[in-house]
Write a structure and sequence with these properties.
- This protein is of the alpha/beta class.
- The chain has two domains: 1-48, no CATH class; 49-257, Rossmann fold (3-Layer(aba) Sandwich).
- The chain is built from twelve helices and six strands.
- It has helices at 6-23, 43-48, 77-81, 97-108, 114-125, 127-131, 143-149, 153-165, 188-195, 206-209, 225-236, 252-257; strands at 89-94, 135-138, 174-175, 200-201, 213-221, 241-249.
- The strands form two sheets. Strands 1-6-5-2 form a four-stranded parallel sheet. Strands 3-4 form a two-stranded antiparallel ribbon.
- Helix 5 crosses helix 8.
- The longest helix has 18 residues, at 6-23.
- The protein is globular, with a radius of gyration of 19 Å.
- Bound molecules: zinc ion (ZN) (2 copies).
- Belongs to the ComF/GntX family.
- Residues 19-79 form the Double zinc ribbon domain.
- InterPro entries: ComF/GntX_DNA_util-trans (IPR051910), DZR_2 (IPR044005), PRTase-like (IPR029057), PRTase_dom (IPR000836).
- It comes from Acetobacter aceti.
- This is Competence protein F.
């Protein structure tokens, strides 16, 4: 038994947190304003976030203005014409000015606690695919980028979702042996070419993934090229199905509004 285990440990930790809150009140994870609860947003930032609810395309997760825009199998026109390789996709928020600060500061500014807020809504948005899942697998980053950022934001999100949905994370099932260029300004063909051989299943993961239902976790779903590359290698390795769960996804409108240079790499 360690010194801080059991009831005393809990009481001390609670008191410690209370004392810390008196010295440093919790702040909004997006703008830094004071808030009542840690890991939360102030009312102004909260209303700038746009959770994706129904109706949305079952396969790519894009929000739709009305359910009349859904075709057969509850899919959007784009998925009917060009079905993605993954089975279903869910995203917690629309990628817009509201969610951008939260996600980019998770990615580039060490605000790792933002994963907790995003994961809450990812768990809600992805409930149906999470209920069926055997493994959560984060989209990998190249080791050089991992050295720069010290962590993989997709792995932080996967861990936070795992705690809520009680689905295990296979954190290094995928690896990214080759660094890729920024994909946002590429054409679909160029993106596919750029992603070829950029991602692979770690050999020791193959047995574990055979016949398993995988949920691939990422921060932002933009063009879907990275997700498609991950899905293809997972299916080739024998995974039974691959679904996607993202913190946010761009919408066709946003892709026109946000200039190419502002679009996040996916
Ligand atoms: Zn705020
Ligand atoms: Zn779709």
């Amino acid at each position: 038994m360690t010194l801080l285990s059991g009831q005393w440990g809990r009481a001390l930790r609670t008191t410690g947190r209370f004392a810390l809150d008196l010295v440093l009140p919790p702040t909004c994870s997006s703008c830094g304003e004071e808030v009542d609860q840690p890991h939360s947003l102030c009312p102004a930032c909260f209303i700038r976030m746009h959770p994706i609810g129904e109706p949305r395309c079952d396969q790519c997760g894009v929000p739709l203005p009305a359910s009349t825009h859904l075709g057969r199998d509850a899919r959007c026109v784009s998925c009917e014409l060009h079905p993605p390789v993954w089975s279903k996709a869910r995203a917690a928020y629309v990628y817009d000015e509201g969610s951008r600060d939260l996600i980019l500061s998770l990615k580039y500014a060490d605000r790792t606690q933002n994963a907790i807020i995003l994961a809450r809504q990812m768990n809600r948005a992805g409930r149906d695919i999470l209920e069926q899942a055997d493994w959560l697998i984060p989209v990998p980053v190249h080791w050089r980028r991992l050295l720069e950022r010290k962590y993989n934001q997709a792995a932080l999100l996967a861990r936070a979702v795992s705690r809520l949905a009680v689905v295990p994370v296979f954190v290094d099932a995928l690896q990214r042996p080759r660094a890729t260029s920024r994909l946002a300004s590429f054409s679909a063909d160029e993106r596919a070419r750029e992603m070829q051989d950029a991602i692979r299943v770690r050999p020791r993961a193959v047995d574990t993934l055979k016949g398993r239902r995988v949920v691939l976790v990422d921060d932002i779903l933009t063009t879907g090229s990275t997700a498609a590359a991950c899905t293809s290698v997972l299916l080739s390795a024998g995974a039974a199905s691959v679904c996607l769960l993202a913190a946010a996804r761009t919408t066709p409108d946003a892709q026109e509004d946000i200039s190419q240079t502002e679009l996040p790499e996916d």
